[in-house]
Design goal:
A four-stranded antiparallel β-sheet has the order 1-4-3-2, covered by helices on one side. The two termini are about 20 Å apart. The chain contains two helices and four strands. The protein is an alpha+beta fold. The radius of gyration is 15 Å and the shape is globular.
């Protein structure tokens, strides 16, 4: 089952928000997150991805990446969704 966080209201960076949300999902302190999130995604690149353009237009989109058996999706509005990865070997037939 996926867990989804609301959009941020503070000015925290997107990468810090992802670390905080994943740690909360896993029930650990963000400093104890293992493996470190930066092994799966570059925090600076994640922050830069959705920065406003030179004309101050907001960017829209979503980035997803795998982390420690989970699929993390981050929307441009700061929403973070954490979903268990599906086993690619499993298939469903009807």
């Amino acid at each position: 089952m996926a867990t989804q966080s609301p959009s941020p209201s503070s000015g925290e960076s997107l990468s810090i928000r992802v670390v905080r949300e994943v740690a909360a999902h896993d029930g650990v302190d963000p400093m104890d997150l293992s493996p470190p999130l930066f092994h799966s995604v570059d925090p600076a690149a994640l922050d830069a991805l959705f920065e406003p353009t030179s004309t101050d237009d907001a960017r829209a989109g979503r980035v997803t990446f795998a982390y420690d058996g989970k699929r993390i999706a981050v929307d441009s509005d700061g929403e973070v969704t954490i979903d268990p990865e599906r086993d690619p070997q499993r298939t469903c037939s009807r």
